[in-house]
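2024-03-11 09:14:02 INFO queue: dequeued item Retrovirus-related Pol polyprotein from transposon RE1, len=102
2024-03-11 09:14:02 INFO validating residues
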Amino acid sequence: MDAEIQALEHNQTWDITPPPRDEKTIGSRWIYKLNLKPDGTVDRHKARLVAKGYTQVERVDFFGSFSLVAKVVTIRTLLALATSRNWYVHQLDVNNAFLHGS
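2024-03-11 09:14:37 INFO prediction written
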């Protein structure tokens, strides 16, 4: 959890501001997860700070939402193209990818 907090602060994820007068604030909570090795022993502890978005009411607190994810057909098309052209394919994970989403 300390590493996650340091990353949030390093990336200047938030500004402390007074809450709006006529609007409710959204709470947050920490989600913890254990990554296990194939033999079942603990590999590492992970922590993620999430907003309690389930407390919001559509058309009262917000006006729509979306999730930016790649469609399976797009990934399959890119893999087929890479295979047909003998391209190397790499996979990566981006830490703190959604810190400044809007």
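2024-03-11 09:14:37 INFO annotate: The chain has a mean pLDDT of 85.
2024-03-11 09:14:38 INFO item closed
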